[in-house]
Amino acid sequence: MLTLHGSPISNYYNKVKLALLEKGVPFTEAYAATHSSDEAILGASPLGKIPFITSEEGALCESQPIMEWLEAKWPQPPLMPADAFAAAKVRELTIFIDWHLEIVARQLYGSAFFGAPALSESNLARIRKQLQTNIAAFKRLAKFSPFVAGDTFTQADCAAFNNLPLVAMASKAAFGEDLLQAGGVDHKAYARFIAERPSAQRVVADRKAVQTKP
Fold it and tell me: Which residue, 138, 156, 137, 139, is CA-closest to 194?
């Protein structure tokens, strides 16, 4: 059976988990710490990153290749459009969310969420400018009609539901302002809409269960 390794606190773990739940793929979960030096983990994820999966076919790391493999192996229900160009637009959006929004905002997480020393004013200014530029670009691509790529739930929603709230919270903590909301992205209404899905409810409940453990 397929096993998803990582932690329910991880947004990229939850990106994959949401896809698995949407597709109804049987899977188990196994905890793995990020940046582990365990040889068994490094054999599956050479940088010790999470998530990674193990299956009868072998191990696979990095969330997007895992998503692509899931789509190829379990095409129904689809999380990618059948049309080649429409599918490319979903990939484009997913890259924007993961790399141009979340990875940029990730520079703020240490001080915003984990008690690390505050970043310098110059670093904060640089990150703020980059986020504002990238949010404006994302707004040009995102549809929210009602899903992020259009009228159908896709892989882009798996990324958006798990990443946009973090971008918003980190920017609010660092700058006193939710840069997504300030940039005209109504991520809160979108998150409430996606949260009506049983798959999203499972992801959120499992994350909260881990976060509230003593």
Answer: 156
Render the burial of 189-203: b for 16+ CB within 10 Å, e for the rest: ebbeebeebebbeeb
Query: What's the pLDDT at 21?
Result: 98
Q: Which of 10-14, 37-41, 99-103, 105-109 has the lowest mean pLDDT?
A: 37-41
Query: Which run of H or E residues covers position 58?
Result: strand 58-61
pLDDT in tens, 142-169: 999 999 999 999 999 999 999 999 999 9
Domains of the chain (ranges, CATH numbers) = 2-73 (3.40.30.10), 84-211 (1.20.1050.10)
Q: Can you give the pTM of this predicted structure?
A: 0.97
Reading across the β-sheet that carries 2-6, which strands appear in turn?
A: 27-31, 2-6, 52-55, 58-61
How many angstroms from the chain centroid is the CA of residue 108? 16
DSSP per-residue letters across 92-140: HHHHIIIIIIIHHHGGGHHHHHS-PPPPPHHHHHHHHHHHHHHHHHHHH
